[in-house]
Write a structure and sequence with these properties.
113 residues; alpha/beta; globular; Ureohydrolase_dom_sf
């Protein structure tokens, strides 16, 4: 499975992560960036993938364009009592159809299983 469907985390969210104190998730999480590309996934225990698909959500008022607001809050958090390595691999953009998006998510899920 190619990871080409994963779009890097927006630079503003990456910059916010870099501004966080040393022990926060923003400083410890591996991030897929435009500049550095995909991080080394060796020994990663948990991957985060943003899904910008909400066409079948009956409560959605607008199409999701970014998840940066969630990432900013995540990156500000301090880790709990765990030793897991986390990687934020960016976002999957909506496919031509919802089924196309679901196919990509299924492929990524199988790849990381």
């Amino acid at each position: 499975m190619s990871l080409d469907f994963l779009n890097p985390v927006h630079e503003l969210a990456v910059a916010h992560a870099m501004l966080q104190p040393p022990a926060t998730l923003g400083q410890t999480i591996k991030i897929h960036t435009e500049q550095d590309g995909m991080p080394d996934l060796h020994n990663v225990d948990l991957v985060i993938i943003g899904l910008l698909e909400n066409r079948k959500d009956n409560n959605a008022l607008i199409q999701v364009k970014t998840l940066d607001h969630i990432r900013r809050k995540l990156y500000e958090l301090y880790p709990g009592n765990w030793t897991s390595t986390i990687a934020d691999l960016g976002d999957v953009f909506p496919g031509e159809t919802v089924e196309d998006t679901y196919f990509v998510v299924r492929q990524l899920t199988e790849f990381f299983s």
